[in-house]
Amino acid sequence: MQCNMPKAAFSITNYYFDKVNINLENKPSDNKLDLSFDVKGFFESAESNYELTFIVQVTNDEFEQPLVEIQCRGIFHINDIHNADEIPEFFYINSIAILFPYVRGYVSMITTQANIPGIILPTLNLASLGPMLKQNTVIE
User: Fold this and answer.
1) Cβ-count burial of 67 within 10 angstroms (0-12 exposed, 13-18 middle, 19+ buried)?
2) Under 8 Å CB-to-CB from 87, ≥6 apart: which residues?
3) Number of CB atoms found within 10 A of residue 122's CB
4) I need a labelling partner for 3 at 20 to 30 A (CA). Which of 25, 54, 69, 97 fits?
């Protein structure tokens, strides 16, 4: 049986971590951590590629410096899109949802390898970041 489903509207082609700062020296024993997120994007219309920059900070209000600050870049290809106005709204939300598990897994793996209780980021619905990503998108 052959399936004639259309290809996904977009797909992730690559991701990488280009900035990682982890300082567990002042990790609180109660594990009360605060998370903050920043997202921005770059759309290359000639190739229909979108680069999502996803920054995650893990802080604790007792200390000035973040415990974890990670910048992850995800490269997506968007099918049949030739200008930014054609990018579907669901892309902005879903691209973040696709990239977050990689960030979450990376933070868990690196911090638990330090041979102390690691930082396990919760599973989160980050749909509220979609409009911020759209607003913070630069178009070439």
Assistant:
1) buried
2) 43, 50, 78, 81
3) 7
4) 97
